[in-house]
What we know:
By secondary structure, the protein is α/β, with parallel strands linked by helices. It contains 14 helices and seven strands. The longest helix has 24 residues, at 169-192.
Amino acid sequence: MTAARDALHAREAPSSGRPVTVHPAAVRPAAAVSRPVPSDAVRAVRFAALGDSLTEGVGDPVGGALRGWAALLAAGLAAEPPRAGDFRNLAVSGARTRDVALDQLPRALEHRPHLASVVVGLNDTLRSTFDISQVAADLDHVLGRLARGDAVLLTACLPDPGRMLRLPAPLARPLARRQRSVNAVVHALSARHGAVHLHLADAAWVDDRGLWSADRLHPGERGHRLIAARFHALLAAHGLAHGPAPAPDPDQPPPTRADTARWLATAGTAWVARRCHDLLPQLLRLAGTEAAHWARGTSTRLDVRADRSLQAALAALPAPRQAAGRKPGPAPCPQAEPLTALRGTMGE
């Protein structure tokens, strides 16, 4: 695993939409990790999954509990079935980057993982307290600490919630702008810390409703299996996954219109009520600003303002820490393919 870890360094272009320029200092790769791996590493891989409801497994219930893409991936990391305790899913529904940094990271470090996934950021865009500088600082801290613990890192960029929820343009654009900034931070920090990165912001992936659960915000079983399979393929290409890839076919039928209606009448109503006290007042103000700029033909000013905030957030990050005696960072791996590139091999 050591040689493979030294070769890992995946970068992608920013997610769909207007390109975002990333500050050069922020994407300078950190030193390669030379991790001491036990002799039975092929048989046992300690895997810690950090993040929010996507990683927790919402949308993929099995036997009264949540499973999700991380658990599906964990089953195929080693040549033998994972031992009790090898996989720890620390993700919590609703978690933001700050929650991951304060609550989940210490528990992950105690696990001393060989592999750690950090997929977070969408909940940050859905809060009135959204601050791209804080997101960048917290995510840099999390990835840096895990990398210095010699963990192979997994990251992913995410689609914007406005598109997934099919919100009207004046409401969707501010959320899309926020998610674009978060994804740019994830891309920059994935390069900086040598992470294996998966692109989940692809429009075709978002628009395939068969991959999503009734709430339209989380993948269904089919979507979770697709994410797990794509991560498995990336890891296997670097000699870091030795077990079978997750099966593509779901065990459960996809959600029906009745399932969607039930979710809207129960959990969906509660979710909207929570956001009405937090995000909605600010989002309505943002929508008013968006509509006014659109009417004047000055919408690009909002993009420029967001880009400046992004650049300032990345420029404020401290220089990567490099342990004494470590070699320079690894050469870049080939760019990771969009998630939808797997569709032809997964019976879609």
